[in-house]
Structure formats: C-alpha cells, structure tokens
Amino acid sequence: MSTLTNSVQWPPSLWAAQTPPGPELPDLQGSVQADVVIIGGGFTGLSTALHLREAGTDVAIVEAMEPGWGASGRNNGQVIPTLSRPDPDDLVARHGAAGERFVAMLRDSASNLFDTVRRYNIDAEHEQTGWVQPVHTPGRIKIAERRFKQWSKFGAPVELLSRDQARDMLGSDAWHGGFWNKTGGHINPLALARGLARTVLSLGGRIYARSPVIDFARQGDRWVVRTARGELSARALVLASNAYSGEFSKALAPDLAHEVMPVLSWQMATQPLSDNIRKTIIPARQAMSDTHGELYFARYDARNRLVTGGAVIGPGNKAERLKARVAERLQRLWPQIGEVRFDYVWNGYVGMTTDYMPRIHRLGPDAYGWTGCNGRAVALTIPLGAELAKAVRGVPAKQLALPFTEPVTIPAHALLRPFAPLMLLLYRYRDAREIA
Ligand SMILES: Cc1cc2nc3c(=O)[nH]c(=O)nc-3n(C[C@H](O)[C@H](O)[C@H](O)COP(=O)(O)OP(=O)(O)OC[C@H]3O[C@@H](n4cnc5c(N)ncnc54)[C@H](O)[C@@H]3O)c2cc1C
Q1: From the CB of 375, is ligand 1 less than 6 Å away?
Q2: What average pLDDT score do residues 165-188 get?
Q3: Secondary structure element (H or E) that encloses residue 185, with its range
Q4: Which residue of 133, 292, 378, 398 has the smallest Cβ count within 10 Å?
Q5: How far is 172 from 170, CA to CA, in rounded Å?
C-alpha cells in the first residue's frame, strides 16, 4: 500500500507554503468495504466523516488528490455565517420548515466551526474576530439594513454599522456603513482541512488519497465507487466533490457538475505589513467582504499579510495584471499602506448557481450530495457535514436542516462555461451604479 504524501501538485498558495504537511495517507487499492463512503476530502467530506465517527459509524473518504486540495485549501479563509446573496426570508420562502432549520444552522455555522476547531485542538490560525460586510454606496445601506433585520429576527448576534463605525472598524473612509456579525472571523483553511483529516483518522475513520473516483453506481443494496486501482463498496454514500465534481471524471456526477458554473476566483497575499501600518487597517482584525459584485475582500493571516484577491478577464498574464489592479485598489482604500507587493497569487474554482442558492440532493437510497457554495461556505460546510452524517444514519428528513431539491442543470453548460468570466463586466457595470 502506498503511503506517499504531498506527492500531488499543490496550487502555489500562501496556505500551501505556510501549512505543515497533512497526514500520510494510502491510496485506494483492491476491494474495500465501509458502511459509508464519502467522495471528496474538502471541508464537507471531512466534517461528514468526523460526525459519522463521533456517532461510531464506519466511514471512508476517497479523495482524488489530498485533503484540502480543492476549494477548501485555497480559499480566503473567511468564516461567514451568511450566504452570498439570499437572506433568511428567501430561504424560508423557498423551502418552508426545512428552510427555517437551514437558516438556524447557517446562523450558528461560524461558531460551530470555531467550536469544532477548539474541541479538537486544531491549529488553524483561527481568529474569531467577526465578519463585516461594508456597503460601497450610500444606497446599498439597504442591503445591510435588510440583512440586519432578517438575521436579528432569527436571533443572530448582528449589528448595523453607521458610516463612522465602519470607518473605525476598517480604517478607511471608503464605505458607507455595513452589516456586522460577531461570530465570524477567519482561519488558515488548509490548516483546517489537514487538522480535520488528522481528527478523522484519530477517531478511526479512513481516508484514501490520490484516488480519483471514476464513477459510482448502485449494485444490489450497496453503492460501489470505482477508482483506477480499486473499488469501495458501502451501504451509504455522500458526494462531497462540489465545484470540483467534473475535474477528474466527467462521469462522476454530470447532473451536479452542470448545475453550477465553476468560476475561477483569484487570491493574493501581500508581504507582511509593519505593525504601525497594520494597526491602522482593520485594527481589530475582522474578516471583511463588501457589497461589490467584483468583490473587495481582505483579512490578515497569522503573519500580518493582507490576504485579498480580485477578478480578471481577457488575455495576457493574469497574475501580473491582478497585482497591479489590486495594489491600486488597496492604495485607494488605505493610502497609508504605501507600496504594495504580493508574495503569493493563486486561484480556485467557486461553484456558482444561477440564483446563488446552494443545492442539496438525495442521489438515491442512502446517498446524498450538494453543490453551489457560491464562494461562501467555509462556515456552512462544518454543520452541513453534521447534517449529512445524520441523513446517512437514517435521521428523518423532517428533522434535518437540509432543504432537498432535484438537480436543475444549466442549459448549454459546456457552451456557456467559457463565457462565465464575462459576468465580471456586468458586475463592474452594476458596482459603479447606485441601486434603486
Ligand atoms: C478561491 C476561493 C476563495 C473562497 N473564499 C471563501 C471564503 O473566504 N469564505 C467562504 O465562506 N467560502 C469561500 N470559498 C468557498 C469555500 O472554499 C467552499 O465553499 C468550500 O471549501 C467547499 O468545500 P467542499 O468540501 O464542499 O469542496 P472542496 O473543498 O472543493 O472539496 C471537494 C473535493 O473533492 C475532490 N474530488 C473532486 N472530484 C473527485 C473525484 N472524482 N474523486 C475523488 N475526489 C474528488 C477534490 O479533489 C476536492 O478535494 C472560496 C472558494 C474559492 C475557490
């Protein structure tokens, strides 16, 4: 049995450079059995496995590369207890009682993540400093007011920030107020993924790495998952390959792969800021993502780098163009920052749905999957894993915070995919205008 680790190609990210290696893992060879098989070792798969092991259920993850190789190890690490656009009333209007249970799960999701990290002593460079969504035009205070009103109704610890409060919190005059949730914060996401993987192993779970699943099928009363060198038969299955579902095998789950547009999101980390400058920019170290469609976002890492990013379209060296564009943005927001140099630039796929809603599915008897993180599910994946674990253990749907829907694929997905980046032009057009 191979026990190689880190033999896979990691994206050249800040997290890959700074995070201690993950556990040594075998690949899948021969015929293996488990009670539950999970395809994908990101936060969703790892959290599902962790909760199954807490309940004493036998579980094996089959991961194409290494735990955290997908979105979970590449993201900005902002722990945000909201969706990107839909608010509680949208979820309840669409999903009724299941929507209400989902809203409660989302409300508690950031605390759930930080509690999990503390409970298992995972060193994820975590800072529960809160999450703030400042508004970038005066009219967009309506967005903050709506969120504040709806989340207050559901008992979330949220506040509406005035322009002065936003200025004090962020150290910049650029915003006009905002929405503030005290339970949010930020983490080193790859450290969290690797820490969760270690925890799953320590609880007796199995993780097979470097084992891309080709397909899965129902055989008798079992699910059989096939890789190039082995197969795993299980009573129940969780598909946790999310935006990377089409990456290794087009046959894995075409319905799920085609209900999201995988959009490349670029991340960047500056050189560490001097302490004097750092104290003037987001001095209390909150995570921040604003109301631009072409999102402005930033948080500190443990070495006082600002971890931010941007979007870019068209030909040419994208990383170099982004460096110039995002440096100019940071200087505009915080003139005191001076010269900006980026040590790391990397990217990853965000799975966007047309309505920004997540999609959670029953895939067959004792089989579940989800997709559509819309760039906002670091916090969500941890309690979502707990719910998926309950589902495969037979907890009735009416007790689950899982608003199930049928997969709805995006028409002409393959034709449209190359044009998805052009949405950025629409975002820029809207960002520059006031909302009605
Ligand atoms: C660049 C970027 C920035 C982001 N920033 C934030 C943020 O700051 N805050 C936030 O809340 N959200 C953010 N997100 C979204 C967040 O990262 C995701 O919602 C979350 O990580 C999804 O976790 P997951 O486990 O469901 O999927 P993933 O982490 O993508 O895991 C899926 C796994 O499945 C594996 N896989 C795929 N196909 C196969 C196969 N055939 N066989 C076996 N394994 C397979 C992949 O290798 C991968 O490891 C960001 C996403 C990106 C890409």
Answers
A1: yes
A2: 98
A3: strand 185-186
A4: 398
A5: 5
H or E stretch covering 114? helix 109-119
CATH number, domain 14-76+190-260+355-410: 3.50.50.60
Contacts of residue 396, defined as CB under 8 A and 6 or more positions apart, other chains included, come to: none
**CA neighbours within 13 Å on the CB side: how many for 343?**
17
Q: DSSP states of 299-361 as a string?
A: EE-TTS-EEEEE---SSS-HHHHHHHHHHHHHHHH-GGG-S--EEEEEEEEEEE-TTS--EEE
Report the pLDDT value the prediction gives residue 436, as an integer from 0 to 100: 75
Domain layout of the chain by residue ranges? 14-76+190-260+355-410
pLDDT tens digits, residue range 17-35? 999 999 999 999 999 999 9
pLDDT tens, residue by residue, 83-92: 999 999 999 9
399 residue type, one letter: Q
DSSP β-ladder status, 297-300 and 287-289: antiparallel
Does 13 sit in the ligand 1 pocket, CB within 6 Å? no
How far apart are alpha carbons 140 and 162 in whole angstroms? 12
Dist. CA 272–CA 268, nearest whole Å:
12
